[in-house]
């Protein structure tokens, strides 16, 4: 079966791009990364793409007079490559409603919180300030409202005593690297159906277990 032609849009380090590349390199994975686009020439993720021989393009937002012109260049590049799905992975540009609508249900994003909690920036600092016991990440279809849209996969990790932003971010990032490839696989297999503003996923079972944090010592 033809693999889903996917583009990954980045602005920086690209560790999620690497995780997606690793997954796509597996035999029988239903998606391929056909293109990596960065809006910044200095994005570390571009090196990962080059090393793996994946086509990449730099579309610097600063070269365009408006957001619309920048996005028109993105869409042109994406469509020239026959892209069927966009994965935003640390892509740090706000997208206009018309771009989002053009790619509706064909563009997914990963956010480092359990949405709808903590959309936006500084998620880990805000989670620590609130004293929540679990944090995590969310992969979702992109809608006009930032960090909002039908949820595909979430992964939860505990907040541990002594955590700071860095330790928490690292724990969540490890979860991101599992959640994003899973979401891409489910979408590429055609198992994710958007119903209203939620998704239904064929043939999966829930995680099932109850997670307690702190653990119930009497039962340890
Ligand atoms: C990740 O934490 C992702 O959830 C957020 O931006 C970060 C990108 O990291 N949207 P990387 O470039 O994939 O390493």
Describe it for me?
With about 220 residues, this protein is of the alpha/beta class. It has two domains: about 1-105, 3-Layer(aba) Sandwich (Rossmann fold); about 110-205, 3-Layer(aba) Sandwich (Rossmann fold), CATH 3.40.50. The chain is about 30% helix and about 25% strand. It is built from six helices and nine strands. It has helices at about 15-25, 45-50, 65-80, 95-100, 125-130, 165-190; strands at about 5-10, 30-40, 55-60, 85-90, 105-110, 135-140, 150-160, 190-195, 200. The protein has a seven-stranded mixed β-sheet with strand order 3-2-1-4-5-6-7, with helices on both faces. It has a two-stranded antiparallel ribbon with strand order 8-9. Strand 2 (about 30-40), helix 2 (about 45-50) and strand 3 (about 55-60) form a beta-alpha-beta unit. Helix 1 (about 15-25) packs parallel to helix 6 (about 165-190). The mean pLDDT is about 95. 5-O-phosphono-beta-D-ribofuranosylamine binds near residues 12, 110, 112 and 137.
Notable features of this structure?
220 residues; alpha/beta; Rossmann fold; 2 domains; 7-stranded mixed sheet; two-stranded antiparallel sheet; 23% strand; globular; binds 5-O-phosphono-beta-D-ribofuranosylamine
């Amino acid at each position: 079966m033809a693999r889903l032609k996917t583009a990954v849009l980045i602005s920086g380090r690209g560790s999620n791009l690497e995780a997606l590349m690793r997954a796509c390199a597996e035999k029988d994975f239903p998606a391929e990364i056909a293109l990596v686009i960065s809006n910044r020439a200095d994005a570390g993720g571009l090196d990962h793409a080059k090393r793996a021989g994946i086509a990449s393009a730099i579309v610097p937002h600063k070269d365009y007079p408006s957001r619309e012109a920048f996005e028109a260049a993105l869409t042109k590049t994406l469509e020239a490559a026959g892209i069927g799905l966009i994965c935003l992975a640390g892509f740090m540009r706000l997208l206009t409603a018309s771009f989002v609508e053009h790619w509706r249900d064909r563009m997914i994003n990963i956010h480092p919180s359990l949405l709808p909690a903590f959309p936006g920036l500084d998620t880990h600092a805000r989670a620590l300030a609130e004293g929540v016991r679990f944090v995590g990440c969310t992969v979702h279809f992109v809608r006009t409202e930032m960090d909002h849209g039908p949820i595909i996969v979430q992964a939860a990790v505990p907040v541990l005593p002594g955590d700071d932003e860095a330790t928490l971010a690292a724990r969540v990032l490890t979860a991101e690297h599992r959640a994003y490839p899973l979401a891409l696989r489910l979408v590429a297999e055609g198992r994710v159906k958007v119903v209203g503003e939620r998704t239904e996923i064929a043939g999966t079972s829930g995680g099932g277990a109850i997670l307690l944090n702190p653990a119930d010592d009497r039962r340890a």
